[in-house]
Amino acid sequence: MYTALERIRAKIIELEAKIADLRIAEREIQALDKLPARKTRPAPGPKPKPKPKPKRKPEASNQAEARRTIGSAIADVLGRRGALSAAEIAEHIRAKGRDISNRTVSFSLQSLKKRGLAKSADGKWALPKADSRRVRS
User: Fold this and answer.
1) pLDDT > 90: what percent of the chain?
2) What are phi and psi of 2, to 5 degrees?
3) What pLDDT was estimated at residue 9?
4) Rounded to the nearest 5 degrees, what angle is found at the Cα of 94, between the Cα atoms of 124 and 112?
């Protein structure tokens, strides 16, 4: 069995080990305090609204062409040529000088279809048949 003196010495050794650990922790904290603090930015406020860009007027010769929407250009091609694929429609529109992708034509055709202004069958797009009850002005 341990004598009282041996137990006291063992307790002193334990306490000295704890003190050494505390001194290490103290040095680490002091080193961290010496590092420059992270700069924080203030919370962003509301963004100022951008000024509206002035609308560019198309050239006088292309004014009528510039006002046409993609949908009206597609309807014009389908009205003149009949049923065509989306790629063929895009080719006809590009032949008129308008820079347009097949994907844009495809999206526009889907939009026209949802509004009942175009229909597709067998990969070809066409205008719906005119309703005889509709009065044209």
Assistant:
1) 20
2) -75, 145
3) 92
4) 45
